[in-house]
Specification:
globular; Growth Hormone, Chain: A; disordered C terminus; 3 domains; mainly alpha; 74% helix; 532 residues
């Protein structure tokens, strides 16, 4: 029975069970301090890369000669590769040991970060982002595993709390740091900064933990299930990214990708339900709380992360903000998120998490409604205030939802459930980014056409604007180009408002799902790190 559980957890992206490491003495003194810093810094670097490129997309797209919608592949490729790597974490850890896998993961992540900065084209950059995302998969769960082995059991809660702060600070720091680097140095440096950090983390980890390797064993891996997972997730993501460029289903390529995604998904379900050692434990979806909680987590995160990409794009391309300014607008989420997350984590076991989740979704709906009223001429704080309020929603989002997902599960299934829910969340974030940017562009094109219908000779407003432009010394064609640019800005602003308004309604609709789950009291310790 024990071996079977070990196989199940390894297939689900689990890390070694704590009892496997009881023979290790806790670290002390400088070794404990340096080990904690190295593990936390590696986690920080990993999580940072999920958001640091968001405000740099216009600069990356401009330098590489592609559109901003194509530039979003830099984000989605990393997310999908990261999600697919999650189910493999437990297998490679059990096979080679947590320390070796963690150090190798850091070094590969560092190498591919450097190569991302060297990329001469979008295709090459996407390739290295895929490899970077895949190598990042084991870093977060294994850093937590090694950290817990470093502390006495009675101090484990404090250690995880300290470690979790890095996963909260990194998404806030990412847009700020990415914006400043893009404006003051150049976008490749958002990847180059990982090189010294990664080398230091790998060196310190090797020095301190090389003699603290976890036990290894040979375990089977579901290669067929993994291949099918890559096929259907990869095909669906590429279809979402390329659909607008190829005019969707009028393109044979898009049709082929859609068929590949559908067939791959169906075969994946059939195989995983019947394989003895599945790469993903789909039987978890027989548990109502897990199923509904994972659906809510995935849908909410898709909207949450999609907006983190869409908002800075709009601010930079149509409001005239710099990357630094856009990063500052996003960073205000940390004001309440950092202050409230420890409080929520402390009391989440003593309250009905459905009320916390309901409050989070309601505040998210308010935030997106506030954003749906944005205009090009708004002041800085009109753009930033919704982000400040969003910090309240964020603090009550991840921890209570994870309590719902994991609450009531037997201990031996928590690792598998955590791995599967994180796979769903990360994948949904990448899908959400593609859907948001694609729909935004499509709606903007529609509004541009509708607005342009009112620009014709004899229209008083159009004629007056044309005369004003020509009075400034512009030629007739130049004046028409100026008017077209104004229409373009207005069309994209109407479209972004529509996206935010739709998100507000969807968050309100998700509240219905919250009350379909059973109360998740005493769900066990849950920390914000699982959300990253």
């Amino acid at each position: 029975m024990t071996d079977k559980l070990a196989v199940e957890e390894a297939a689900a992206g689990a890390t070694p069970e704590p009892q496997q490491e009881q023979h290790l003495r806790p670290l002390a003194g400088s070794a404990l301090v340096l080990g904690t810093l190295a593990l936390s810094l590696a986690t920080f670097m990993n999580v940072l890369d999920t958001s640091i490129a968001n405000v740099s997309l216009p600069a990356i797209a401009g330098d590489l000669g592609v559109s901003s919608s194509q530039g979003t592949w830099v984000i989605t490729s990393f997310g999908v590769a990261n999600a697919i790597a999650v189910p493999l974490t437990g297998f490679v850890t059990q096979r080679f040991g947590a320390v070796k896998v963690f150090i190798t993961s850091i070094l590969l992540f560092t190498l591919f970060s450097f190569l991302c900065g060297q990329a001469p084209s979008l295709a090459v950059l996407i390739l290295f982002r895929v490899l970077q995302g895949a190598s990042a998969g084991p870093m977060i769960p294994l850093s937590q595993t090694l950290l817990l082995s470093s502390y006495k059991p009675q101090r484990a809660g404090m250690a995880i709390a300290m470690w979790s702060m890095t996963t909260l600070v990194a998404p806030i720091t990412g847009p700020l740091l990415g914006g400043w680097i893009t404006d003051n140095i150049s976008w490749p440096w958002i990847f180059y900064i990982n090189v010294p950090v990664g080398l230091i983390c790998a060196g310190v980890t090797a020095t301190i933990y090389s003699k603290r390797e976890t036990p290894t064993r040979k375990l089977p891996i579901d290669w067929t299930g993994l291949a099918l997972l890559v096929i259907w997730v990869g095909s669906l993501q590429i279809m979402l990214d390329k659909g607008q460029e190829l005019d969707w289903f009028s393109s044979n390529t898009v049709l082929m990708l859609a068929v590949s995604a559908f067939v791959g998904f169906v075969l994946f379900l059939i195989w995983e339900l019947h394989d003895e050692h599945p790469v993903v434990d789909l039987s978890l979806f027989r548990i109502p709380n897990f199923t509904i909680g994972t659906i809510m987590l995935a849908l909410a995160y898709a909207m949450f992360f999609g907006s983190l990409v869409l908002l800075p794009l709009w601010l930079q391309e149509f409001v005239g903000y710099t990357a630094t300014d856009a990063g500052e607008v996003l960073a205000w989420v940390g004001l309440f998120a950092l202050a409230l997350s420890p409080v929520i984590g402390r009391y989440v076991q003593s309250v009905d998490t459905r009320w916390l989740t309901t409050t989070s979704f309601a505040v998210f709906a308010l935030v997106f409604w506030m954003r749906s009223r944005f205009t090009i001429g708004d002041a800085y704080w009109q753009y930033s205030l919704p982000t400040v309020v969003q910090g309240i929603a964020t603090a009550m989002f991840f921890i209570p939802l994870l309590a719902i997902v994991l609450g009531g599960l037997p201990p031996h299934r928590i690792a598998a459930a955590s791995g599967l829910s994180n796979f769903a969340r990360i994948t949904a974030g990448s899908f959400g980014t593609s859907i948001y940017t694609t729909w935004w562009a499509n709606r903007a094109a529609l509004h541009h056409a509708q607005l342009a219908e009112h620009i014709y000779q004899g229209n008083p407003v159009a004629d007056q604007t044309l005369r004003l432009a020509q009075g400034l010394g512009l030629g007739h064609q130049q004046a028409l180009g100026l008017i077209d640019g104004l229409i373009q800005r207005q069309a994209y602003t109407i479209a972004v408002d529509e996206m935010f308004r739709l998100s507000a309604w969807l968050f309100l609709a998700l509240i219905v799902l919250v009350w379909l789950v059973k109360p998740a009291r005493n769900a066990g310790p849950v920390d914000a790190s699982a959300a990253h």
